[in-house]
């Protein structure tokens, strides 16, 4: 057992804090619940690195131009700086790999230039001390759709997934805890018609069992690469990333992980669909333009009945909190948003009421996410067309939709206290007293370097057994 000067420890702590704009504990030893404290709110770099054409699946034909194939702006440091300025702490970077960036299908090797572009954008975020979530997005449907059809070759898909995530993890293994991996995006949602690749599994029990199998492959592949990846935070998705399906069918405890407490669970939130995504009236129902009291007064058919809807949404969120957050699995609300409509073409439409309704929805969704311990990532597709979800104009690095942003920031503030109660700031060495304040024979707690008590009321370190490492005891740093 060796004792190390506490003044040296304090000097190291201060140097770390001074090197960062937003001081935080920096360690791969932080658990998912500890990391969650720092991550809210989040933003999606949508329609960007996940863009392309599924005709390019398992080829290298996508190229760097894929970044601007679904929207027109190249991602810059200035954009990430703007996000930080506006209070965002995390960036989710949806990524395509198979859809045009594979140089060898046999080994699932990734194009070096594409991987470097991914790293460039990660580095923009790290420079601003932001957290980053990297995933395998829709990616041409190679697994998120094709892997969940009745005719899928599951063994082959598992091996491709293992190879792909082995390559991604090796390429990014030197990044610290601020880079987080998410295995999939929306498994089972959208894409090719069932006739094109076999019928999609409709039995959610069977579907979820297969999903668990794929996600286990993802976890094992990342952990096997070692280094920082041995403890990196990983995100797994519920079936269809739907709140009800995730609550009713998904059991995160069925996943095994060699790193304890390092998993988060993801769902997406576009509820109610008629307000958030439905572009026009259909035979089965109306699109919703307004929320609650934010109505022109003459269009009840296009107005959400707020009281009952909000009660239902709160119940759905509470279910997820109880099942996952309370069990130690932080929840990532990986996407959420409501379309901005131009009301000029709507009979007797009110743009002001629609804008106010949308702002209220963002406030409600963000605050409820925070209150229930979900890390909210707003979807932003950088499209200026009607029915867009766009918060920032990337070309000019300005706010595009102040209503949406105000809703997010107001909702964040409203839910922050509850969120911090669920995910308190990880302990530092505060509360560890100078050695002179304790009698030499007094008992004292033993702390790890995150300030967590690992042994209570110890009078002699020689009488206890601890794993090899560094600890704090009676105001001094000791090795065991």
Per-chain topology:
Blueprint: E1 2-4, H1 6-18, H2 32-36, E2 42-44, H3 77-85, E3 90-93, E4 102-104, E5 109-110, H4 112-127, E6 131-135, H5 154-172, E7 179-182, H6 194-197, H7 204-224, E8 234-237, H8 243-249, E9 263-269, H9 273-276, E10 290-291, E11 303-304, H10 306-323, E12 331-336, H11 351-371, E13 374-378, E14 392-393, E15 398-399, H12 402-422, E16 444-447, E17 453-458, E18 470-473, E19 476-479
Report on the structure:
With 480 residues, this protein is α/β, with parallel strands linked by helices. It folds into two domains: 1-25 and 427-480, no CATH class; 28-422, TIM Barrel, CATH 3.20.20.80. The chain is 33% helix and 15% strand. It has helices spanning 6-18, 32-36, 77-85, 112-127, 154-172, 194-197, 204-224, 243-249, 273-276, 306-323, 351-371, 402-422; strands at 2-4, 42-44, 90-93, 102-104, 109-110, 131-135, 179-182, 234-237, 263-269, 290-291, 303-304, 331-336, 374-378, 392-393, 398-399, 444-447, 453-458, 470-473, 476-479. An eight-stranded parallel β-barrel has the order 2-3-6-7-8-9-12-13. A five-stranded antiparallel beta sheet has the order 1-19-18-16-17. A two-stranded antiparallel ribbon has the order 4-5. β2, α3 (77-85) and β3 (90-93) form a beta-alpha-beta unit. α5 (154-172) packs parallel to α7 (204-224), α8 (243-249) runs parallel beside α10 and α11 runs parallel beside α12. It is globular and about 80 Å long. The protein starts with a strand and ends with a strand. The model is unreliable at 1-20 and 429-441 (pLDDT under 50).
Tag the structure with descriptive keywords.
TIM Barrel; 33% helix; 19 strands; disordered N terminus; 2 domains; 480 residues; alpha/beta; 5-stranded antiparallel sheet; 8-stranded parallel β-barrel
């Amino acid at each position: 057992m060796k004792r190390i000067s506490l003044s040296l420890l304090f000097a190291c702590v201060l140097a770390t804090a001074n090197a960062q704009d937003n001081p935080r504990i920096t360690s791969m030893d932080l658990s998912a619940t500890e990391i969650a404290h720092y991550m809210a709110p989040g933003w999606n770099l949508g329609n960007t690195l996940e863009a392309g054409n599924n005709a390019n699946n398992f080829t290298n034909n996508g190229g760097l131009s894929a970044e601007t194939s679904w929207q027109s702006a190249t991602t810059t440091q200035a954009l990430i700086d703007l996000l930080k300025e506006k209070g965002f702490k995390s960036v989710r970077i949806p990524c395509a790999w198979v859809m045009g960036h594979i140089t060898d299908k046999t080994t699932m090797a990734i194009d070096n230039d594409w991987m470097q572009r991914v790293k460039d954008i990660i580095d923009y975020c790290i420079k601003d001390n932001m957290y980053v979530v990297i995933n395998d997005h829709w990616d041409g449907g190679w697994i998120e759709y094709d892997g969940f059809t009745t005719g899928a070759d599951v063994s082959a898909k598992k091996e491709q997934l293992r190879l792909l995530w082995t390559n991604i993890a090796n390429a990014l293994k030197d990044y610290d805890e601020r880079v987080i991996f998410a295995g999939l995006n929306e498994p089972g949602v959208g894409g090719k018609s069932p006739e094109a690749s076999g019928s999609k599994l409709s039995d959610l029990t069977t579907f979820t069992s297969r999903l668990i199998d794929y996600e286990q492959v993802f976890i094992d592949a990342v952990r096997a690469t070692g280094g920082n990846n041995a403890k990196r935070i990983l995100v797994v998705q519920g079936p269809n990333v739907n709140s009800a399906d995730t609550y009713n069918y998904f059991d995160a405890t069925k996943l095994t992980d060699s790193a304890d407490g390092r998993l988060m669970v993801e769902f997406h939130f576009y509820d109610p669909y008629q307000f958030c995504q439905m572009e026009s009236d259909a035979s089965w129902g109306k699109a919703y333009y307004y929320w609650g009291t934010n109505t022109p007064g003459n269009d009840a058919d296009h107005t959400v009945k707020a009281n009952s809807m909000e009660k239902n949404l709160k119940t759905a969120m509470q279910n997820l909190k109880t099942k996952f957050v309370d069990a130690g699995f932080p929840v990532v609300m990986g996407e959420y948003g409501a379309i901005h409509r131009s009301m000029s073409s709507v009979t007797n439409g009110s743009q002001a009421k629609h804008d106010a309704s949308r702002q209220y929805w963002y406030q409600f969704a963000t605050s409820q996410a925070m209150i229930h311990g979900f890390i909210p990532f707003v979807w932003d597709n950088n499209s200026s067309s009607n029915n867009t979800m766009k918060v920032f104009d990337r070309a000019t690095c300005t706010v595009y939709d102040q209503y949406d942003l105000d809703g997010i920031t107001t909702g964040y503030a409203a839910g922050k206290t509850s969120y911090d109660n669920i995910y308190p700031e990880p302990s530092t060495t505060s509360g560890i007293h100078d050695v002179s304040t304790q009698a030499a024979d007094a008992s004292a707690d033993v702390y790890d370097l995150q300030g967590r008590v690992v042994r209570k009321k110890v009078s002699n370190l020689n009488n206890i057994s601890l794993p090899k490492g560094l600890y704090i005891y009676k105001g001094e740093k000791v090795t065991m």
